[in-house]
Amino acid sequence: MKALCWEGINDVRVQDVPDPQLLNDQDMIVKVRLSTVCGSDLHLLTGHIPFMQAGDVIGHEFMGEVAEVGPGVTRHRPGDRVVVCSFIVCGRCWYCRNELYSLCDNTNTNPAITQQLWGADPGGIFGYSHAMGGFRGSHAEYVRVPFADHTAIPIPEGVDDLSALFASDSVPTGWMGADLGGVKPGDVVAVWGSGAVGQMAARAAQLLGAERVLVIDRFDYRLRQAAQAFGVETINYAGTSVGDALLEATGGRGPDVCIEAVGCEAHSTGPQYAYDQVKSKLKLETDRPIAVREAIYNCRKGGSVFVLGVFTGLVDKFPLGALMNKGLTVRGAQQHGQRYIPMLLDRIASGELVTNHLATHIMPLSEGARGYELFKKKEDGCVRAVFQL
Amino acid sequence: MLLAAGAVTVAAVARRRRRAPDERDRYLAVTVNRAPDEVQSSLPEDLARWRDRVEIRIRPAAGDKGTELSVQPSEQVSRHELRLALRRAKAVLEAGEVVQSDTAPTHPGPMGKALRLVTSRAGGGGRL
Ligand SMILES: NC(=O)c1ccc[n+]([C@@H]2O[C@H](COP(=O)([O-])OP(=O)(O)OC[C@H]3O[C@@H](n4cnc5c(N)ncnc54)[C@H](O)[C@@H]3O)[C@@H](O)[C@H]2O)c1
Ligand SMILES: [Zn+2]
Ligand SMILES: [Zn+2]
């Protein structure tokens, strides 16, 4: 079959790879219909996550049709339409039972790598390096889905393929940021990043009752999209002081909840960007936590900061003093998709949650490399490139 | 790059964790989300086969977390082997099977080959 493979830093190509097989009883094979790029893939492309082998199939945000099920699968049948969460979960370990799905104990086949780096191993992800289990990704005609009863979720009839696609990753990620960030009715919420994840966090904050939601980015087209889709307020950090704008918008308090949806390759117009670049070139820091710093610094006293952006290792100039002295709660997580996806599909079906505007570029898989190029360079108004199979 | 940072971290951890003689006997442990009697009565073969050579301890975990399953390493079985056995036993007890990784690519490249050396031993876990 055809699949889009990581072949080296900033090099992805469509290759012929063997069809996936059922390897475990609880596996199923999904015929992919739509698979999309995610900001997390950029960290693979740039070599930020070096646990890749040439020929690894990438992609983890996808939906499709069940092609074949193993004897241990009871909830899905061939022909069913499913959205597959980017995280592979067993559904029965303590973490899964407590709805902390991305922390599943039983799905990372190479736990020693992340145990060494982080002290413990999170669950496995499709197409996201050998540190996260070495599973093949979804930019392919077919994907093997382990623990299929728990990893994949049926798509209700009222939800079209394109809207359901984003329920795999960006929508539950954004929702989790607002939910676990503790957004309450009446809150003022600031979101760093106006990509799919940031936009979905902003919409989730609204649906959880936030009174005002402000989204921060430097790309006007992305801010415009968020404003048009959801009526949020926007701040372009290229021309404005984010701190001043947030103080003005909150009567001098700062936002109640700050959600960071940018990640380890954050950009900045100020001198700290050069500082972080030099530090990372010298390998004295692995990630650029620019938006995290800003979120912590600008959050109101006693407020909450949620880190959705992906970080891999060590950061510098972490504002621990602000965190401690302002009494903040700072949390982060990889998405606990299975906790939210059924509810989110219902909200999509009811029209309350719109997602398909994120698909700015729909193209065949053969154009995968171009899709990533547009997405990476944020060209031609690209928010998500979607591959149709 | 993460690998560099990873190597530094690993070296630091290894330095910190070079074991004092009495530490070599420390139990290796996993917590299984099943009741102690269930773990006792259906100990998976992956672990049960070492029964004669290592001490296996089963006791309730704190709170609602199930059962602590521990083994005390001995000269006869490598720590790596025991970690793998514990991890596999836990997966079987909790989820009914040990998930297999997908077939690896055919042309991993030099970096990929180096990585394969790491992943070939990364199954059992443990902070080394
Ligand atoms: N936690 C999870 O489970 C999970 C899931 C999916 C994605 N992610 C992560 O979420 C992040 C966003 O993903 P995405 O798909 O929306 O990516 P994206 O690349 O489409 O969007 C990121 C946005 O952040 C903006 N940005 C960069 N620096 C900024 C700064 N200093 N201040 C404000 N905005 C800034 C960029 O201009 C861009 O629009 C990534 O780090 C991704 O890895 C996490
Ligand atoms: Zn993602
Ligand atoms: Zn689990």
TrEMBL record, chain A:
The keyword Cell cycle does not apply. It comes from the Bacteria. InterPro entries: ADH-like_C (IPR013149), ADH-like_N (IPR013154), ADH_Zn_CS (IPR002328), GroES-like_sf (IPR011032), NAD(P)-bd_dom_sf (IPR036291). Residues 196-264 form the Alcohol dehydrogenase-like C-terminal domain. Keywords: Metal-binding, Oxidoreductase, Zinc. PANTHER family: DEHYDROGENASE, ZINC-CONTAINING, PUTATIVE (AFU_ORTHOLOGUE AFUA_2G02810)-RELATED, ZINC-TYPE ALCOHOL DEHYDROGENASE-LIKE. This is Threonine dehydrogenase-like Zn-dependent dehydrogenase. It comes from Lentzea atacamensis. The lineage of its organism: Bacteria, Bacillati, Actinomycetota, Actinomycetes, Pseudonocardiales.
From TrEMBL, chain B:
It comes from the Bacteria. This is Uncharacterized protein. It comes from Lentzea atacamensis.
